[in-house]
Specification:
With 354 residues, the protein is of the alpha/beta class. It folds into two domains: 5-249, 3-Layer(aba) Sandwich (Rossmann fold), CATH 3.40.50; 275-353, Uridine Diphospho-n-acetylenolpyruvylglucosamine Reductase, domain 3 (2-Layer Sandwich). The protein has helices at 5-32, 39-43, 63-78, 96-109, 128-147, 158-171, 175-178, 200-209, 226-242, 246-274, 284-288, 292-305, 315-326; strands at 54-58, 82-89, 115-119, 151-153, 184-185, 191-192, 282-283, 334-336, 340-345, 348-353. A six-stranded mixed beta sheet has the order 3-2-1-4-6-5, with helices on both faces. A hairpin with a 2-residue loop joins strand 9 (340-345) and strand 10 (348-353). The N and C termini lie far apart (70 Å). Residues 33-44 have low confidence and may be disordered. The structure holds adenosine-5'-triphosphate. The site of adenosine-5'-triphosphate (ATP) has 17 residues, from helix 3 and strand 2.
Length: 354
């Protein structure tokens, strides 16, 4: 008898991603280990085979990432991949250190190794959720570097993706924020999200039938957090009004928006060279002729290049700068975050730090 359907589903999702990782690894190994013709005869050596790649799972001890860890522990040895894990102690709740110890123990119990348990200090910048996320990714990056890991797996599910799309929609900041999380992200495509097409219930069920103990983060149920309210009130209300397929539809929206946003970014990248004069300044008349979606991307990029922090630059800032092009009536300089100033001078748009 085969495994329970939920276990089969999580393993398949992980197997697919491990195949991708293996292909990328072999391609990069083949390039770096390629010998010049005749080299083997001269040196008597063959190219060294790249060592088997190491894949780490980032595990909070929650159902999604425990399911991910179990599937990685099952699949990796069958593909000749080494598999380890990292758990991060954010130090935000009493007893979090003990829990991290326990998670590390469970990961080792699954046969994973190396397993790291890392304590971080969470700052305040951008609010509690963003600060914890920044500290976590810094710790995961450091662990990947320390162990020479090829990839780090994250347990985000289709439900997380749907929530991310809704949060982006509520921010009102364009299709990039509707495109949610990428299946592959980070330096050199380090972060992979095998469960992005899998629902949270399947991950939880897979833990249950494998008798894997899971830890439910009280923050996930705390109505003080926006994401938690969305999870427990917003999405159920939407499902009630629109039907069960809404989560899947939102996740599909993410993929479609990502493709559109990538295409528009590429268009803006090419158009930018054509709207700059010989001195590299942006020409207002040429900007005016571009479609708004392309023009605004160029303006945003110029503001960031001048020193405006991307995270503080909102759609309303770019709209104001855009009015220097499309609604010119002699208005003054526009102040942007990071002490960046945008102003129109003699048919040119000048954006620089003031
Ligand atoms: N403390 C942590 N240590 C290591 N990895 C973490 C930690 N917290 C989150 N992650 C990683 O980030 C992913 C997303 O975390 P998040 O808390 O947003 O989602 P979640 O739905 O609560 O996931 P989970 O059920 O796995 O905790 C997790 O699945 C896991 O891979």
């Amino acid at each position: 008898m085969g495994p329970h359907p939920a276990v089969a589903a999580i393993r398949l999702a992980v197997r697919r991603v491990l195949h991708d990782i293996l292909n990328d690894h072999q391609t990069s190994g083949a390039h770096s280990g390629r010998q010049a013709p005749g080299e083997r005869e001269r040196t008597g050596r063959t190219a060294e085979r790249p060592p088997s790649p190491l894949v780490l799972v980032a595990c909070s001890g929650g159902a999604d990432s425990m399911a991910l860890a179990s599937a990685l522990a099952f699949e990796a040895p069958r593909l000749g991949i080494r598999a380890g894990g990292v758990t991060v102690d954010h130090g935000l709740q009493p007893g979090s250190g003990l829990r991290a110890d326990e998670v590390a123990l469970r990961l080792r119990g699954l046969g994973l190794g190396p397993v790291d348990r890392v304590a971080v200090t969470v700052g305040r910048e951008g609010g509690p959720e963003a600060a914890a996320r920044d500290a976590r990714y810094a710790a995961l990056d450091a662990a990947a570097e320390r162990h020479g890991a090829t990839a780090v797996l994250l347990g985000h599910t289709r439900d997380d993706q749907a929530e991310t799309v809704l949060l982006g929609l509520a921010r009102g900041s364009g299709i990039r924020s509707l495109s949610g999380m990428a299946a592959v992200s980070g330096a050199g495509g380090r972060y992979r999200r095998p469960f992005l097409h899998l629902d949270r219930q399947t991950a939880r069920k897979a833990c249950m039938v494998q008798s894997l103990p899971v830890w439910d983060d009280p923050h996930n149920a705390d109505p003080a957090y926006t994401r938690s309210r969305l999870r427990h009130e917003g999405l159920p209300a939407l499902e009630k009004a629109l039907g069960k397929g809404v989560v899947e539809a939102l996740a599909r929206t993410a993929q479609l928006s990502r493709d559109d946003a990538d295409a528009l970014d590429a268009w803006a990248g090419q158009a930018e060279a054509a709207v700059r004069d010989a001195a590299g300044l942006l020409e207002c008349a040429k900007l005016y002729a571009l479609p708004p979606a392309v023009r605004r991307r160029i303006l945003r990029r110029a503001a960031i290049e001048a020193g405006a922090p991307a995270g503080s630059l909102f759609a309303r800032h770019i709209e104001e700068v855009d009015r220097l092009i499309t609604g010119w009536r002699g208005q003054g300089a526009i102040n942007l975050p990071g002490r960046v100033v945008a102003q129109r001078q003699g048919g040119r748009l000048v954006i620089r730090q003031g």
